[in-house]
Amino acid sequence: MYTTCVYWGISLIYSVLYIGLLGTDGMDLPTQLKYPAMSVGYDLTMGEAVIIVLVLTYALTLGMMEITLFLSAVLKNTYGVIVIAFLIIIVPTFLSPDSVGYVWSRLICWYQYDVCFVLLNFVELCDKLYGKYFHKVKVKFMMKKEYLEQDVYTALQERLHFVFEEFDNIFVSFSGGKDSGLLLNLVLDFQKKYYPHRKIGVFHQDFEAQYTVTTEYIERTFERIKDEVEPYWVCLPMATRTALSSYEMYWYPWDDTKQEAWVRPMPKHPYVINLKNNPMTTYHYRMHQEDLAKQFGRWYRISHGNKKTVCLLGIRATESLQRYSGILNKKYGYKDTCWISRQFKNVWCASPMYDWTSSDIWHANYLFQYDYNRLYDLYYMAGLKPSQMRVASPFNDYAKDSLNLYRVIDPEIWAKLIGRVRGANFAAIYGKTKAMGYKNITLPEGHTWESYTRFLLATLPARLRQNYIKKFQTSINFWHNVGGGLEEETIRELEEHGYRIQRNGVSNYTIMKHSRIIFLGKIPDHTDDIKSTRDIPSWKRMCFCILKNDHICRFMGFNLTREQQKNIDLLKMKYGKIGEKR
After folding, report:
1. Which residues does 147 contact at the CB level (< 8 Å), separation at least 6?
2. CA angle, corner 483, sides to 477 and 487, nearest 5?
């Protein structure tokens, strides 16, 4: 009671003095503006953050009091208690993200991994003890495909009715691709027919480097609908991943320090958002592209009365397993829907066309005679498969294989792309050849794959080197302590070839419940003698990621999980650019 009275009494006196001197202005601003380098992902205002900090500090104070009493009872030495208590209080201050972010992030990473490991084991235990009942719960959340007696267009109309009834603010994310273009047209027709009094927003995130026909399509679309919607064409500097260079993990569309190297001029329309015309209070300089898209949703909510807001996306489950898995994830679903997920407080994302196929997309465009990006016609004439026809930044992992098409389709843009990001020409030449194929790469004389990997790491800049080392170490620890699910054929093949492996329960990452396998001793140098799969650890696999500039290490099974290194990267980005033009 004494501790509680003292803590809250001092906090109250300090707060009254602080607010009395400085006022309450700014308490409703987002925490991102206070800590831009941290890129705080929580949807909190400064006032809410202060309250949370006060409560957490109170809990820590009570914990510190308990520790002090315990030390007094054990040590029976006043000076010893003071020294230990002092160290417990002082040392963590040097582990804050603003000072030694590396150590801090490692502690957080360990905590997240440990919690996930415990939860996975708990699920497995429940499955064993209560399999009969637990299986029903698993089936419910696995959400296997169920085909309805309803066409996708009718289903879309029902979902749009649901969206317009549930949400106060609605905007469409329009990339210039076939999916988002069709969604925009369908939503506008729906709005005119059923909700003519409502006005929706249209958000376009411009990555600067794109085909001329894509720019022309976006121009046509915005000019056609600008009086019917709230148009937002965003051309702000942002960090965008590149898979072309061993020296650049990011490139920066609309970088104001390299205006002379821009691939194309800045669009000139009153609805274009750039550094000279930026109403987005939630934007900070060179923020990550994904954060920019999310923070636009927060700003749209704030600027529209802080009411429930939803962003409509043209994401389809059939595009990739990653998107299919994302649709199935109902952790933050809205009212038991699998196609609406929460981003922030009162900000949601919806994919009402999630069950459409590519054939459905083109059939609808033909049926309703909608305008579309003529780049797809050029792709078709170039012989690309539908799965290869992507409208995205040309430098990311998905688009680099078709980078060479810029030479033929848009030679003027191609000439500027070469000077925009290092490695563009190399990727265009070798991106679709076997020169960089996994089975085709060879070792320099005198090297093992492990020594060659370590040699390549030593040649990289410190930032990229640490990125690879962190992912490689995570993979090694995973295959030594947890293990990946492998088919029985692969397990038998590994045993026949003398690999030291051991079963470690059943994998929760595979639907077929494959055995989880851990490797004893050192990770193999290579596994070329294993024909049934490449999804097993080896130094060659790590080396291949470096040679392919695979910063994310997708080839090793990693996904785009930035959170564990986000603080470090953004701190370096912020303080490494001091002195540049802002």
Report:
1. none
2. 150
